[in-house]
């Protein structure tokens, strides 16, 4: 009874945390589970993708997947299309046990993006946009020039982006990064080639 209470208390205590993801739950489960005779679980690989010019092909309709519904851009100023090969890649990674995140400098709302991904069968485990990133920088006392992206702050293992400057920041913080060319016509193969 007490042991179960510890697990429940741990989950209730950690649940309000802004950046709680399933990696923390696995960690608590592993630590407490080993004390009470439960088998620890392996942590899934957490991979994040940038939106603009990475998953989305802005302005290049030839690279767009015609079977995926469009996403309205921030403030309704444009319509964005998913890149060809992105949906099979995301579904394949999820089937392999990876957690899929979006980490973007966009102002798009979390619920809009989560619903859009769900509409083509991809469940996102997490979403970081510019306001959440800025909040994480503020919480760490970073003033002045702020890093563009810091995936490790959110428990992300691998980040896929089109910005070479993001690559340097990710590598400096210990996060693997895959840089893709926005005009790449074989997105899925290019990402997997760097795996």
Task: Please provide a brief summary of the model.
Helices cover 37% and strands 12% of the residues. With 195 residues, the chain is of the alpha/beta class.
What would you note in describing this structure?
This protein is α/β, with parallel strands linked by helices. The protein contains 7 helices and 7 strands; from the N terminus they run ααβββαβαβαβαβα. A 5-stranded parallel sheet has the order 5-4-1-6-7, sandwiched between helices. It has a two-stranded antiparallel ribbon with strand order 2-3. The chain is globular and about 45 Å long.
Blueprint of the fold:
Layout: H1 2-14, H2 22-35, E1 46-49, E2 71-72, E3 79-80, H3 86-95, E4 99-103, H4 110-119, E5 126-128, H5 130-139, E6 158-161, H6 164-172, E7 176-179, H7 187-193
Parallel strand pairs: 1-4, 1-6, 4-5, 6-7
Antiparallel strand pairs: 2-3
Helix pairs in contact: 1-2
Keywords:
single chain; 195 residues; two-stranded antiparallel ribbon; 37% helix; globular
Task: Determine the number of helices (DSSP H or I, runs of at least 4 residues).
Answer: 7
Mean pLDDT: 80
Determine the strand fraction and express it as a percent band.
5-15%
Q: What shape does the CA trace take?
A: globular
Radius of gyration: 18 Å
Helix content: 25-40%
The string of secondary-structure elements, in order, is HHEEEHEHEHEHEH
Task: Output the strand order for the largest sheet.
Answer: 5-4-1-6-7
Given the helix and strand composition, which structural class is it? alpha/beta
Sheet bearing the most strands, described?
5 strands, parallel
Report the span from N to C terminus.
44 Å
Uncertain ranges: 1-19
């Amino acid at each position: 009874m007490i042991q179960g209470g510890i697990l429940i208390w741990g989950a209730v205590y950690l649940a309000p945390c802004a950046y709680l993801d399933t990696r923390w739950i696995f960690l608590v489960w592993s630590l407490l589970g080993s004390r009470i005779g439960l088998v620890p679980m392996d942590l899934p690989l957490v991979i994040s993708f940038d939106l603009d010019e990475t998953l989305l092909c802005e302005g290049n309709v030839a690279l767009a997947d015609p079977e995926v519904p469009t996403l309205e851009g921030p403030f309704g100023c444009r319509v964005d299309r998913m890149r060809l090969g992105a949906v099979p890649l995301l579904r394949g990674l999820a089937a392999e046990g990876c957690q899929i995140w979006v980490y973007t400098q966009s102002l798009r709302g979390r619920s809009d993006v989560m619903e859009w991904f769900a509409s083509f069968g991809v469940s996102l485990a997490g979403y970081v946009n510019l306001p959440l990133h800025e909040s994480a920088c503020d919480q760490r006392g970073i003033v002045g020039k702020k890093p563009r992206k810091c995936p490790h702050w959110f428990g992300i293992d691998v980040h896929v982006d089109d910005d070479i400057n993001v690559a340097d920041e990710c590598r400096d913080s210990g996060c693997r990064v895959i840089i893709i060319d926005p005009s790449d016509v074989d997105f899925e193969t290019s990402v997997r080639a760097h795996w």
